[in-house]
């Protein structure tokens, strides 16, 4: 058990924190006035650049718009939440929000100028200069303030003491980030962990609260500032107990649901019908991201089909010469959200009947033709799937589509197997460039491939797709497991 003694240095920091909290309204007022001053200065600077002289020499509407927008910024920036505590959140997001809010204020000012029938007198170049200078100035103000607070918090001033309730994956990750990213200004003083998670708490450096019932008294006795609840969404009884025990706690309480332990595709929190909702099974490559990926896929597939048309012709002739039968082979697969489609390949085997059972190709498989051995080893048999991409059934990069019988078998053996069908299947993928291609004759091999597929779905980006394509071109076309 860590010693619960507040040393003089911590006491001084606590006094400083209380002083900052006491004058928080004055700090907020100072920030609002600094924003107004920054926009006022930016407007006059833009006037000097555009009109080569004071703004007063320009049409009066410029000075009127300057006064109007500065007044609106003083009022609307507060309503838009620009002066709330940004502790623990992304700085880039804050800067983006500030710039967007300034753009909104300027648009409202332009609309009012239009209603006053003076918008035609405004210099568009001055507006552009003012927007750019204003964005730079108000971002600079926040950067100075934010950097000052980071310095103070890094040195223990204006820090907040925290108790973490629940020490699973989320609780441990929050504790680690609070320690490593000390500029956030959070000091984890105690942890209330279940017996199974208690082994992860280093009691030489931090206090462990044994039971939930001890929590309220500890918070009051040690003047805790915040309580972070990192409890799984399935622990409803514990949450109800916490709600009752902390009903009189006059501190900030944050609930961060422990979703890391759930093998789902995402845990993004959004708004649904006015309620906060967690999307557990929504891929990153959906919405606008999905449109960008789809456009990239179709343009890339079209370019490949045009450039490789001569190679297609050569392979088709070789297949017809090597054995009787069609050039292309098609087989049903599961696509996006389990929708069936026919995948196309160059035929690499002799014509045969499988009696409803799909047998994976093995080493020295007698069904494979001579040309088939070459195109399978080099993955050239997969090239017709660029037609599937143009048809919208597949993507350039994604989980490889498996035979229907394999889907039925592995969906029972592997818990998260079917989650890979939440995105379009791909010609190549993260699993393939990591060596998991070809025959999957054991459950362990398939499990490793599925884990790669899920990693790709959870971490998708266009840049990641491009990396996989380039890597496939140099490494992924061949492999020891491809027969």
Give the gist of this structure.
The chain is of the alpha/beta class and 483 residues long.
Description:
- This protein has helices spanning 8-22, 24-51, 60-79, 91-115, 124-154, 169-180, 215-221, 236-245, 288-307, 309-322, 370-377, 385-391, 404-413, 430-433, 443-458, 462-476, and strands at residues 160-165, 186-192, 207-209, 226-229, 252-255, 268-272, 275-279, 328-334, 340-346, 395-397, 426-428.
- With 483 residues, it is of the alpha/beta class.
- Helix 3 packs across helix 4, helix 4 runs antiparallel to helix 5 and helix 10 runs antiparallel to helix 11 (370-377).
- It is flat and about 85 Å long.
- Mean pLDDT is 81; it is low at 1-23.
Task: Give average pLDDT, whole number.
Answer: 81
Spans with pLDDT under 50 lasting ≥5 residues? Answer: 1-23
Shape: flat
Query: Going across the major beta sheet, what is the strand order?
Result: 3-2-1-4-5
Tally of helical runs: 16
Helix share bin: 40-55%
The total count of strands amounts to 11
Give the N-to-C terminal Cα separation.
Answer: 60 Å
How would you characterize the largest beta sheet? 5 strands, parallel
Element-level helix/strand string: HHHHHEHEEHEHEEEHHEEHHEHEHHH
Structural class: alpha/beta
Strand content: 5-15%
What is the CA-atom radius of gyration, in angstroms?
31 Å
